[in-house]
Amino acid sequence: MGWIVFGFLAWLAGWRANVWLARQPKSRATALAVPVIFGVTVVILWECAVRGFGINPVLLPAPSAIAVRFAGSTGILWEDFVQTVLKGALSGYVLGCGGAFLTAVVIDRYPFLQKGLLPVGNFVAALPIVGMAPILVMWFGFDWQSKAAVVVVMVFFPMLVNAVEGLQATDKMQRDLMRTYAAGYGKTLLKLRLPAAMPFIFNGLKITTTLALIGAIVAEFFGSPIKGMGFRISTSVGQLALDLVWAEIVVAAIVGSAFYGGVALLEKAVTFWHPSQRG
Amino acid sequence: MRKSLIPILTVVAAIFVIWYGAAVALNMAWAKDQATRAGTNPSFTELVANTWSQKKPKLPAPHQVAAEIWKTTGEMVINGRGFSKRSLIYHSWITLSATGIGFLLGAGFGILLAIGIVYNRVMDMSVMPWVIASQTIPILAVAPMIIVVLNAIGISGLLPKAMISMYLSFFPVVVGMVKGLRSPGAMQLDQMKTWSATKGQQFWRLRLPSSMPYLFASLKVAMAASLVGAIVGELPTGAVAGLGARLLAGSYYGQTIQIWSALIMAAALAAVLVALIGLIQRIVLKRMGMA
């Protein structure tokens, strides 16, 4: 009972603090503090609910138990991280995005291809491509190559659509100006159209970070060697070792956020000139 | 639209040509192997014909997949067994119902949360960053756990899958709707003020109508995500029913044609659902005088 009361009080205190902070003039500190306080109160509430109601750890482990498990099995988590993220997701991401970008440059040269491929690409981008996973696992074997292949297929079309859109982002006046400078196709592409396409390309790169992780993890549900985050999640669920599952989810969350954040930082450095970055 | 029809058809035709070609390339090894074992020396055309008609090919040819789809849908309907457990219609319906419920719940909650975020500064500052951060987390990885946990407390069948769909379709709607509800400019909001509109009137007559284009754009994303959620949600239940279960069962037994037909069915389902939202969007926006 005490835990529940404590959790309730913590929630109340956190909310009051946030209400007070929200009334303060807007600043960087408040914009950071409010969500942090919210997150902390949610975790406290979770812990108190698990202890107070005596929830079976098989159903929902307490945050403290997850933290203990996380600290206790860093070896396994690191091995899974290397297998799934570095080998599977990252290699697929680089290949898929790179391939899509090159395809976009080619498509951009031929209006016929553009008119034909773009609607098809848009269509494919909305399809449940994860379903390709069992087929690709069959083709490329159980190890990370098949996971990379799933990631390539998943990131390719969203990236392609964004890159093609980006390459069309220059207007006629700008292209005419390049012509008056006597710049050929290559020079125009390099000095005008690629830089102008960067905001779109980074949009694609950011969307596909999550897709890459999802693809690599879900592909492991269809068969994998005895390591990898998806493998660990599905087997640990079977063993009802939910604290390990949550530890993997924490890893996935950290990796996902770091991946996205890294691309966002890169975007800031590359497209410093864009209005959305100057605000 | 007319103008782009020929290029699209060309690309689609090219895809089919590549598909048939890939089927030859991928299945050739097996066909040759079979021929040498039987001690025959088939001609090239016979080998090609073989690659397009194997029972468990590495890559089934399009007509094989089409035949399988027809066998498990149209033919079964004709035989009056359209809803038997072996028909693809039955499995599609299982997936579709989970997708639909999850989508409706997710979109509903998403809209409510977006309204809360727009009208409550504390919620905006505390919840919104987490909504955005949650987009970067591979939520789908949690799917097996949700299924097992809900099973353990006695909830099984449709609801766990719908929960995953809801979770996935929830975030695009929140983000899009917050953007949409905030899209009226200061000038329009001031105009409402000069008409001494109440908060309710401001919401119903200005904010909600101007959020519609954003809402529909995010509903399309949410619908696609919802279907993916339902399919992935069917994987850990041990391949009972649904398109995801067909995928898993197919991959267990090497039934590639079955996998491909389930995949094509899922794609068709996604296309129809997204097109449906597009249609509703066109009708609504037209009646509102926005398109």
Please give a structural write-up:
- The complex is a heterodimer of chains A (279) and B (291).
- With 279 residues, chain A is an all-alpha fold.
- Helix content of chain A is 82%, strand content 0%.
- Chain A is built from 12 helices and no strands.
- With 291 residues, chain B is mainly α.
- Chain B folds into 2 domains: 2-59; 88-287, MetI-like (MetI-like fold, Orthogonal Bundle), CATH 1.10.3720.
- Chain B is 79% helix and 0% strand.
- Chain B is built from 12 helices and no strands.
- Chains A and B meet through helix 1, helix 2, helix 5, helix 6 and helix 9 of A and helix 1, helix 6, helix 7, helix 10 and helix 11 of B.
- Chain A: Keywords: Cell membrane, Membrane, Transmembrane, Transmembrane helix, Transport.
- Chain A: It is found in: Cell membrane.
Percentage of residues in strands of chain A: under 5%
Q: Which percent range fits the helix content of chain A?
A: over 70%
What would CATH call the homologous superfamily of the largest domain in chain B?
MetI-like
Percentage of residues in DSSP E strands of chain B: under 5%
Query: Which sequence of SSEs, written as H and E, runs from N to C of chain B?
Result: HHHHHHHHHHHH
* CATH class label of the largest domain in chain A: Mainly Alpha
Topology-level CATH name of the largest domain in chain A: MetI-like fold
Helix tally of chain B equals 12
**How many distinct folded domains of chain A?**
2
Pfam families (chain A): BPD_transp_1
Keywords (chain A): Cell membrane, Membrane, Transmembrane, Transmembrane helix, Transport
Main location (chain A): membrane
Domain ABC transmembrane type-1 (chain A): 101-270
Summarize the structure.
Chain B: Keywords: Cell membrane, Membrane, Transmembrane, Transmembrane helix, Transport. The complex is a heterodimer of chains A (279) and B (291). Chain A is an all-alpha fold and 279 residues long.
Keywords:
heterodimer; A: 279 residues; mainly alpha; MetI-like fold; 2 domains; 12 helices; flat; B: 291 residues; elongated; MetI-like (chain A); membrane (chain A)
